[in-house]
Amino acid sequence: MTQPVEKSGLAPITYCSAVDAIAASGWANLDFFRSGAGRETAARVDARVAAGAQVLPPARDVFKALELTRPDQVRAVILGQDPYPTPGDAHGLAFSMANPERRLPASLRTIFTSLETDLAIMPPAHGNLTRWARSGILLLNVTLSVEAGKANSHKNFGWAALAGDVIAHLNQRPTPVVFMLWGKFAQHAGAGIDTSRHCVIETAHPSPLARGSGPQHRFVSAKPFTQAKEWLLLHGLPPIDWQL
User: Fold this and answer.
1) For 132-181, how does the pLDDT look when each residue is reduced to its tens digit (9 = 90+)?
2) Band of pLDDT at residue 22, cut at 50, 70 and 90
3) Which DSSP category does 59 fall into?
4) Which residue, among 105, 4, 127, 17, has the nearest Cα to 54 in the 3D structure?
């Protein structure tokens, strides 16, 4: 299945053209883009599209996390694994769901339960986390593309190098960043973060598979949003607005 073409003709229609478009952003100096690795990865994705695979999210959204949250805006990072493999759900932001007609994924429901338990923020009626991205919360998947119905199908395409570059770039910043590493996959990706300058919150993944045997999901009982709030307060920094 070919990727949809924007009527305006301005949005990227291939994953390689999406790499070219991101070159004008604040993230353009990352080695992933400067070295050509980005185009190599994108070419592998375009090859799967040419072979008939339905790839998610569409090319116009594959770098949405970087487009909505510039490097100088980042206050927190939430690392996801790869996009939702159901057509219409993924739109380039980790854990976020674009389709308002579908039931929220279980992981997102767990995140909203934790928000309510931690900060008394009532869950929204939708799963779109764009407001978080615009307020400085980088919602980045380690793998940026997936084939419909095939979770982790692009995990070896080279996307992980981009996540590594992003983390390394933010790790060097003097301004503190809250890194929320949910699950072993994200924790492995963030293993080198300097905890003397940045806040690193490691919890179970919000997936039902990581629930454990207690009455509460282990992610909820870890209170990740409270941990972030307390760390920022301790260091005299303004709180993060988690409202949606």
Assistant:
1) 999 999 999 999 999 999 999 999 999 999 999 999 999 999 999 999 99
2) confident
3) G
4) 4
For 135, the enclosing helix (H) or strand (E) is none
Alpha-helix residue ranges (DSSP H) falling in the chain: 15-22, 31-34, 37-50, 64-68, 106-119, 130-134, 160-171, 184-189, 218-221, 224-234
CA angle 139, 15, 101 (to 5 degrees): 55
Max Cα-Cα span within the chain: 53
Rounded Cα distance, 7 and 18, in Å: 16
Q: Distance between alpha carbon 193 and the CA centroid of its chain, in Å?
A: 17
State how far the Cα of 141 lies from the Cα of 118, in Å rounded to an integer: 24
**Token pair for residue 118?**
């931690």
CA dist., res. 161 & res. 163, Å (int): 6
Catalytic residue among 82, 89, 118, 165: 82
Model confidence pLDDT, tens digit, residues 60-95 = 999 999 999 999 999 999 999 999 999 999 999 999
Kindly report the average pLDDT of the chain as a whole number: 92
Look up residue 215 and give its amino acid: P
pTM of the model: 0.92
- Name the β-bridge partners of 140: 79
Indicate if 82 belongs to the active site.
Answer: yes
Q: How far apart are CA 228 and CA 200, in angstroms?
A: 9
**Distance of alpha carbon 190 from alpha carbon 181, whole angstroms:** 7
Amino acid in position 26: G
Identity of the amino acid at 94: A
